[in-house]
Amino acid sequence: QNNGFIKIVEVGPRDGLQNESKIVSFETKLELINLLTNCGLPVIEAASFVSPKWVPQMADSSNIIKSLNQSHPTKYTSLVPNQRGLEMAHKAGAKEIAIFGAASETFSRKNINCSIDESFEKFEMVVKQAKDFGMSVRGYVSCVVACPYEGKISSDVVADISARMFDLGCYEISLGDTIGVATPEESRNLIRKVSTHIPVENLAVHFHDTYGQAIANIYASIQEGIRTVDSSVAGLGGCPYAVGASGNVATEDVVYLAHGLGFLTGVNLEKLVRTGSWISEELGRPYGSKAGQAVLAK
Ligand code: HMG
Ligand code: MG
């Protein structure tokens, strides 16, 4: 036991579900969040206050946030792209939001319909007002290794965008490998570069698992000092504006890795596996966690 703690940010109810074409019922979403809470996850991204025309699956975000106990030790967070989303999140009782930008100009336009510079103008106002509301703000940078439209992205650009976002007042910057193409050496170099601008304790990693490298990337990231990891129960998910990208790394696999390295996570793996296999069944998908399958087979 090394007594260190790895904070897992469970993004399944948001990143995991946003790309499901069939609308998942409000009751199923709420049940998922409550089960995940019961697993001991410290942070759950529960909703997304984006345009329902862009992402219909997240249209019931206000009701989801209203239905959660915001004074629970588990923190519930939501994506917010603009002032409109912030006001809705605030009205619903949200205590934390996440803004999301990109290191790729084309992805920014496809995902949030504006350039990177325009996005920062919006973020500045959103962060300022969120702080006035007493909310904390997390920041995402997408396409930290590659973009589905532009290809390879320079880590200098990623470091610059991340620093701009951190300087706005985000307490944590999550580095998103949106299309899941990173390899461990690239992940390591990226974290070294970005952490020359932002303390490593304020960084998180967010790997999609398209090429099956996510768990190896997380291991490399932990070796570089990363202690916050985003993941999705059962490996659900994908981004609607990054065609072909698969789900996030499965939370079950991250928990197994972290515990195996002697870290604490506060997460009960057995309960998490029951939750992961249940939601996979609800969605009619094969259960996408290797660690989860192994636990079930025992
Ligand atoms: P827009 O069309 O440029 O915005 O979209 P607009 O201000 O012109 O508004 C258009 C319509 O949307 C209006 O309605 C607005 O009221 C409404 P209308 O007058 O036509 O009836 N609207 C809203 N409704 C509800 N909530 C709002 C909101 N804002 C406007 N907040 C916008 C701009 C940003 C809204 C749009 O592009 C959008 O919603 N994009 C979100 C895309 C998205 O959710 N992508 C997935 C999440 S990011 C991700 O997955 C990556 C991540 O996981 C990290 C990684 O893996 O890299 C985080
Ligand atoms: Mg993502």
From TrEMBL:
Its EC number is 4.1.3.4. It is an enzyme of class 4 (lyase). The keyword Cytoplasm does not apply. Pathway: Metabolic intermediate metabolism; (S)-3-hydroxy-3-methylglutaryl-CoA degradation; acetoacetate from (S)-3-hydroxy-3-methylglutaryl-CoA: step 1/1. GO terms for molecular function: hydroxymethylglutaryl-CoA lyase activity; metal ion binding. The keyword Lipid biosynthesis does not apply. One of its GO terms (biological process) is ketone body biosynthetic process. It catalyses: (3S)-3-hydroxy-3-methylglutaryl-CoA = acetoacetate + acetyl-CoA. Residues 6-273 form the Pyruvate carboxyltransferase domain. Keywords: Lyase, Metal-binding. Belongs to the HMG-CoA lyase family. This is hydroxymethylglutaryl-CoA lyase. The lineage of its organism: Eukaryota, Fungi, Fungi incertae sedis, Zoopagomycota, Kickxellomycotina.
